[in-house]
Amino acid sequence: MLNNGLGSWIHKRRIKSRERLALIQGDYELTYDQLAVRIDRLTNVLAARGVTKGTRVAFLGGNHPAFLETMFACGQLGAIFVPLNIRLAPRELNYALNDSGSELLIALEAQGEQAVLAMADSPVRDYLEAANTPGGVSDYEEAMTGAETTRQDLAVRLEDPAIILYTSGTTGSPKGAVLTHGNLTWNSMNVLVDYDVTSQSVALLIAPMFHTASLGMGALPILLKGGTLVLQERFEPAAVLAAIEKYHVTSLSGVPTTYQLLAEDPAWDNTDISSLKMLTCGGSAVPIRVLEAYEARGLGFTGGYGMTETSPGATSLGAEYARSKMGSAGLPHFFTDVRIADSLGGELPAGEVGEILIAGPNVISEYWQRPEATGGSYHQGGWFRSGDMGYLDDDGFLYISDRLKDMIISGGENIYPAEVEQVIMEIPDVESVAVIGVPDEKWGEVPRAILVLKEGRTLNERELFEHLDGRLARYKIPRTAIFVEELPRTASGKIRKADLRKRFGEAAAM
């Protein structure tokens, strides 16, 4: 077999697990044999439309079999898959299409209007729309039905790019992280080594696969091992609990809010969740009250730390350490190394806070067409600079101390203040602005804007939000705004965000 990348996975799994269920979404089911046939058909559809090695193919939609079919079909051709976040505004989607040079876009019917707006003035030359209901009538399905089922085995290497995932940057312009076939393969191997994933695993995916955590820590390892994925389009607590009972789900991933809402649902006490064996929580630490609610049902949490650039796993915290190492992000994954460094990249001893550096075959080596960003992201020896601050204890467990890049994590979504600030500065009335994260009981953190207006100008909170609506994804729009006379600055003119957090960082409205 010439293809050493993701494109070979389902064919190989078809040989070993032909009749085992690979995907379930509602009443729609695909065995590994059926999934392989559909991927072969789509591969031939894409090839007939001019997709070759290196062509970028974008996908706009939530959790749906078409997402995985497109990704694996791209993998067979050596094309590069570009999954897009459906929560982004059309302008943000258009940026990703242009920056990646995507030539073909596949979107779900629910995102059809977004897709049309995003494609304007972009390099996209071809478009296919899939029905919201898997297998439903659509041009996507029609194209698949008429396609050949012959499998294409082309030369694809582990070092070839597989996916471009866009991650917001501190300069305000999103960067495309280039994940190779090798990055994703080794990340999956880390998951299989460090977690109890088996061919009998049934994973319920409630977080969208256009986020690297759901894709890299959930979907890909399960499919590599021959388990079953249960896809849900959106998170609805009652529906999640029903699915756990119906499909005998063994693993679930989410953020603290996810688990809190499940435990607070009226169906919680009467739902049979005895099949669950692994709960993974990311984004932030599990609150004590949530931890206790699951411990009462005989369940514990695994956790960890990572980012898009590490495909995404860097560390993992086993459930057995949930109490003894509370607050820790865990130990480095098996095939990944983590160290703490000073400003020059020198290694610091245990207990000392510095920048978290990560190395391993799961770590990306470049940003898409961003040599300057790539060059500034690594220390000598290939150590990736996370931009996060932390320390290792005497046992080698990682603790996160601060975010060097001021990133806000809201309900599992990464928000970079610079990006929000850039859009706010488009308002003629605004002289300067700073965005900080403030605590929120439901989402963990939400953004708050602190603004200085130009002399003689007026702007209120409602007008600010109206300007941002449609320009930014809704989760990025500040929940509150505070208008001040001036922002605290250093001697060089840089805004002192630490002072702003101290003064305006309370959860209560100011």
Describe what this molecule looks like in 3D.
It is a single chain. By secondary structure, this protein is α/β, with parallel strands linked by helices. Among the domains are: 1-157, ANL, N-terminal domain (Rossmann fold); 327-403, Luciferase, Domain 3 (Luciferase, domain 3, Roll), CATH 2.30.38.10; 408-504, 2-Layer Sandwich (GMP Synthetase, Chain A, domain 3). It has 15 helices and 25 strands. It has helices spanning 9-16, 32-48, 65-77, 90-100, 112-119, 139-145, 181-194, 212-225, 237-247, 256-264, 288-295, 371-375, 417-424, 461-468, 497-504, and strands at 21-25, 28-31, 56-60, 80-84, 104-108, 126-130, 161-167, 175-180, 202-205, 228-231, 251-254, 278-281, 301-306, 313-317, 331-332, 337-341, 354-359, 378-379, 383-392, 398-403, 408-410, 413-415, 430-440, 444-453, 480-483. The strands form six sheets. Strands 2-1-10-9-11-12-13-14-15 form a nine-stranded mixed sheet, with helices on both faces. Strands 16, 17, 18, 19 and 20 form a five-stranded antiparallel sheet that branches. Strand 19 and strand 20 form a beta hairpin. Helix 1 (9-16) runs antiparallel to helix 2 (32-48), helix 4 packs across helix 5 (112-119) and helix 7 (181-194) packs across helix 8 (212-225). The longest helix is centred in the first third of the chain and has 17 residues, at 32-48. The chain is globular, with a radius of gyration of 23 Å.
